């Protein structure tokens, strides 16, 4: 009887499985047709209403909101030392952070009172870095760290690199102080996790620029504000990954600890945290990388270090100097990434290696500690061990070589690069930008709401309504539309490249093994680094920012698409092959349609990365909201406008994020 029931159920289950694809195809077609109809109506109305109610605003003009922001800034400045909220809260936080940063800078980068050099000079820093890298990783990582830090000195950028390291370490320490406990709490409590997750999503959606302007309102411009902004920006990865690590511990292990009488504290300290250590360390790795990226951008609010060197070089169009400083940022990022990555898997790697030196590890570490302390003493006592020797001739050679390559590229490749730039700008970017900026604001808003509702559902549509209304309220509608045009064009290019590379990686394990390390390394680099080579090729134009944004966002989109293609069941691909489908048909009819969720998620992440980078491109002529933010930092009368531009960037990011996330969920159903 049981067999009969199973036989009778089988056709029903098969029929149920076969029925969704047509429905999904119909739904997909209807959404596509709805979007196409919306765009067609937009084009027709644009031809009739072009140039009317565009809400354009000249670069030097201010709205009432911008003036109000300026008045608030002036009022805060006038009452900073009398208002109790500042006296006993904001000023105290600033004092604590400033003290911490100053202490670390005095330790490794800045001259201390009565000394022309810091307390620990270059030899001591290299010794400590090598020892710590060996202790938490292995000897290969230690050699890499020593070589990397020595190279920073040879570039003539030792003090700038140590300033960047000092701010990064200060921000990471403060971030982890509350991020790890909060992550553990979110991992243990479903309620806390539900409360924290939307805030983490919002914080990780916002581009890095956005953190700077409001914080300067409360903490002034300087290293303290830079460190606080970096702390806020770098904390979400640690919180999220720690919570995930705690929740990933097998429930059977936790129940076994409970059955043995372990208290909640004992279960946490003896079971959950030890079993989550590797993942938690990876969260720390992501926090360090985020902090390094933010510290370099925080040079816009007077943070010292390599970021300040890059900004000065970009503003003066000195590609050689910018390249040398950008290379130093890359070296520092690679060293920090390799050390923390090695730390996450050190114990397991050591066990697999079976090295006979493992039993002597404690003795070797003790001897290494003595050597490191001797190097610290020498660097504290002797000038030759405190000041990096030489005059940075390696850095000068790198700068000269980069400048020569730039000159050669401009002389010999300008025809090709200019043709490519003009074709994309005139053929795609300018028409789309004119469509957005010359249409009536209410028409563009209606189109955004309609498309958001069709793709993401009514919740995404409601979010779009709110974001559009607030964008109008910022007084920067036209600049926001210009940024939207650049972001959309860059995202289209990201997806085209991401699909090609992602499908290739997803279909070939060998290609994946060869390409993925490069993509991982590309995601480690701070955004500033991407501007330098394209500044040399294309000059200071908005196209430079777009190309840099594409290169910055392609790695994350490619990896998501590759994982989605790889997740398509092999049996499905084999069935398509057996029916006579060729490679192109398998990709377009099977693998890509079954990876719709991954494609939409890749679009989401590509948009966020592109939006962040297009704004950074304000430093090299991207204009629009990026320029407004930069001008707000450099020109006091435009501070309110820069603050409003930061708010507009947040609104664009939230709108894009909500629509694409909702679309990804609907595509996966």
Secondary structure elements and pairings:
Layout: H1 2-18, H2 20-49, H3 64-79, H4 84-108, H5 122-136, H6 139-154, H7 158-188, H8 190-205, H9 212-219, H10 223-247, H11 251-259, H12 264-297, H13 306-315, H14 319-344, H15 346-353, H16 361-381, H17 393-412, H18 414-438, H19 441-456, H20 458-473, H21 477-507, H22 509-524, H23 528-538, H24 542-566, H25 570-578, H26 583-591, H27 596-616, H28 624-634, H29 639-668
Helix pairs in contact: 2-19, 3-29, 4-7, 4-10, 5-6, 5-16, 6-14, 7-8, 7-10, 7-12, 8-10, 9-10, 10-12, 11-12, 12-14, 13-14, 14-17, 14-23, 17-23, 18-21, 19-20, 19-29, 20-29, 21-22, 21-24, 21-27, 22-24, 23-24, 24-27, 25-26, 27-29, 28-29
Structure description:
- This protein is mainly α and 669 residues long.
- It contains 29 helices and no strands.
- The chain has helices spanning 2-18, 20-49, 64-79, 84-108, 122-136, 139-154, 158-188, 190-205, 212-219, 223-247, 251-259, 264-297, 306-315, 319-344, 346-353, 361-381, 393-412, 414-438, 441-456, 458-473, 477-507, 509-524, 528-538, 542-566, 570-578, 583-591, 596-616, 624-634, 639-668.
Instruction: Tell me the strand percentage band.
Output: under 5%
Radius of gyration: 27 Å
Figure out the total of helices.
Answer: 29
Q: What is the string of helix and strand elements? A: HHHHHHHHHHHHHHHHHHHHHHHHHHHHH
Q: State the end-to-end CA separation.
A: 35 Å
Mean pLDDT: 83
Shape: globular
* Largest beta-sheet details: none
**Fraction of helical residues:** over 70%
Structural class: mainly alpha
Uncertain segments: 1-28
What is the strand tally? Answer: 0
């Amino acid at each position: 009887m049981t067999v009969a029931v199973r036989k009778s159920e089988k056709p029903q289950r098969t029929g149920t499985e076969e029925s969704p694809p047509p429905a999904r195809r119909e739904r997909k077609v209807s959404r596509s047709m709805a979007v196409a109809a919306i765009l067609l109506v937009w084009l027709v109305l644009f031809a009739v209403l072009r140039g009317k109610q565009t809400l354009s605003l000249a670069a030097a003009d201010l709205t009432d909101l911008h003036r109000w922001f300026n008045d608030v800034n002036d009022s805060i400045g006038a009452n900073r030392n009398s208002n109790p909220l500042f006296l006993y809260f904001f000023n105290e936080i600033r004092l604590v952070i400033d003290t911490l940063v100053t202490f670390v800078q005095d330790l490794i980068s800045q001259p201390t009172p009565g000394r022309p050099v810091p307390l620990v000079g270059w030899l001591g820093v290299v010794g400590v870095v090598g020892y710590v890298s060996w202790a938490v990783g292995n000897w290969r990582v230690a050699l890499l760290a020593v070589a990397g830090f020595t190279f920073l000195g040879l570039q003539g950028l030792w003090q700038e690199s140590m300033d960047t390291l000092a701010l990064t370490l200060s921000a990471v320490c403060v971030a982890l102080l509350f991020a790890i406990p909060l992550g553990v709490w979110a991992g243990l409590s479903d309620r806390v996790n539900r409360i924290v997750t939307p805030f983490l999503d919002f914080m990780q959606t916002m581009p890095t620029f956005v953190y700077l302007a409001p914080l300067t309102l409360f903490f002034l411009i300087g290293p303290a504000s830079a460190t606080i902004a970096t702390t806020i920006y770098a904390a979400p990865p640690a919180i999220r990954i720690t919570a995930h690590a705690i929740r990933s511990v097998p429930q059977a292990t936790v129940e076994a600890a409970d059955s043995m009488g372990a208290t909640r504290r004992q279960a946490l300290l003896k079971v959950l945290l030890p079993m989550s250590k590797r993942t938690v360390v990876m969260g720390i790795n992501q926090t360090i990388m985020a902090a390094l990226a933010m510290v370099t951008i925080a040079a816009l609010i007077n943070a010292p270090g390599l970021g300040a060197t890059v900004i000065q070089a970009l503003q003066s169009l000195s590609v050689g100097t910018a390249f040398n400083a950008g290379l130093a940022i890359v070296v520092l990022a690679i060293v920090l990434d390799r050390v923390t990555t090695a730390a996450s898997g050190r114990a397991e790697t050591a066990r697999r290696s079976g090295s006979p030196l493992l039993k002597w590890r404690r003795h070797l570490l003790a001897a290494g500690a003595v050597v490191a302390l001797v190097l610290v003493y020498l660097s504290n006592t002797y000038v030759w061990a405190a000041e990096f020797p030489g005059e940075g001739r390696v850095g000068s050679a790198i700068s000269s070589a980069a400048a020569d390559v730039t000159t050669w590229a401009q002389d010999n490749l300008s025809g090709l690069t200019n043709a490519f730039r003009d074709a994309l700008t005139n053929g795609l970017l300018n028409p789309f930008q004119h469509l957005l900026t010359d249409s009536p604001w209410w028409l563009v808003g209606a189109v955004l709401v309609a498309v958001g509702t069709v793709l993401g559902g009514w919740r995404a549509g409601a979010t779009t309504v709110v974001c559009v209304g607030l964008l109008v309220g910022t007084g920067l509608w036209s600049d926001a539309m210009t940024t939207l045009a650049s972001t959309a064009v860059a995202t289209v290019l990201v997806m085209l490249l991401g699909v090609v590379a992602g499908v290739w990686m997803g279909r070939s394990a060998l290609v994946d093994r060869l390409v993925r390390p490069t993509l991982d390394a590309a995601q480690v680099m701070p955004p500033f680094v991407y501007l330098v080579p394209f500044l040399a090729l294309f000059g200071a134009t908005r196209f430079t920012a777009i190309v840099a944004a594409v290169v910055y966002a392609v790695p994350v989109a490619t990896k998501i698409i590759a994982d989605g293609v790889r997740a398509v069941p092999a049996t499905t691909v084999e069935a398509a092959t057996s029916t006579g489908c060729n490679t192109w048909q398998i990709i377009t009819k099977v693998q890509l349609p079954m990876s719709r969720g991954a494609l939409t998620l890749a679009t989401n992440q590509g948009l966020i990365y592109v939006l962040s980078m297009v704004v950074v491109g304000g430093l090299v002529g991207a204009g629009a909201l990026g320029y407004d933010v930069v001008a707000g930092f450099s020109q006091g009368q435009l501070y309110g406008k820069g603050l409003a531009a930061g708010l507009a960037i947040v609104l664009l990011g939230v709108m894009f994020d909500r629509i694409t996330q909702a679309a990804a969920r609907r595509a996966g159903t």
